[in-house]
Write a structure and sequence with these properties.
This protein has helices at residues 4-9, 12-37, 44-60, 70-89, 104-122, 125-152, and strands at 93-94, 101-102. It is an all-alpha fold. The chain has one domain (12-140). Strand 1 (93-94) and strand 2 (101-102) form a beta hairpin. The longest helix has 28 residues, at 125-152.
Length: 177
């Protein structure tokens, strides 16, 4: 096995890039699986591609030099987030005759997938994995927690707004986690 280490050392930067791209893809897939479970239009493959794309764009700067220029990296990230904003906007819908907005949580998952791709591309592993955990917690227990807090604080019962307790886990309404 020791004979392999010198050979792998020659490819250390390529292995690092591969790891970052794989982690970014994994981060997007995990968030996307939650959207798939709730039958939303943006799912595992879409968010994996968003996250992978963000990481690839961030990493593309590393192949042209050994140092990240702070201002160049910042411009790359701003461009990613601007483009992702348009993608996320495509899943937001407003009722024809109502002011009820649908799809905000799904749109926000596009943003978090891009952000996790950026953090993976930068090699910020703690931020990436902490972001995955927090995002999944919000997507899993955010809405029931929101409704419980609203009831506890004396607000209207949002969970029963459609008369169906099952709708508490959907991506509908303007009060989304």
């Amino acid at each position: 096995m020791e004979w392999l280490l010198p050979k792998l050392a020659a490819y250390e930067s390529d292995i690092t890039i591969l790891l970052r791209l794989l982690v970014a893809t994994f981060a997007g897939m995990v968030i996307g699986l939650n959207r798939d479970r709730h039958n939303k239009p943006v799912g595992m493959r879409t968010l994996a591609l968003v996250s992978l794309s963000a990481a690839a764009v961030v990493l593309s700067g590393t192949v042209f030099g050994e140092h990240f220029q702070q201002d160049a990296a910042s411009r790359v990230m701003q461009g990613i987030l601007t483009g992702v904003g348009f993608l996320g906007a495509g899943v937001i819908m407003r009722g024809k005759d109502t002011f009820e907005v649908h799809g905000l949580t799904t749109a926000s998952t596009v943003w978090i997938a891009a952000a996790l791709g950026i953090t993976s591309g930068l090699g910020a592993w703690f931020i990436t994995f902490t972001g995955i955990i927090i995002a999944l917690l919000l997507l899993t227990v955010g809405k029931p927690l929101e409704y419980a807090l609203i009831r506890m604080l004396g607000g209207p019962d949002q969970a029963g707004s459609e008369g169906d307790p099952k709708s508490a886990g959907s991506d509908q309404g303007h009060n989304q986690p």
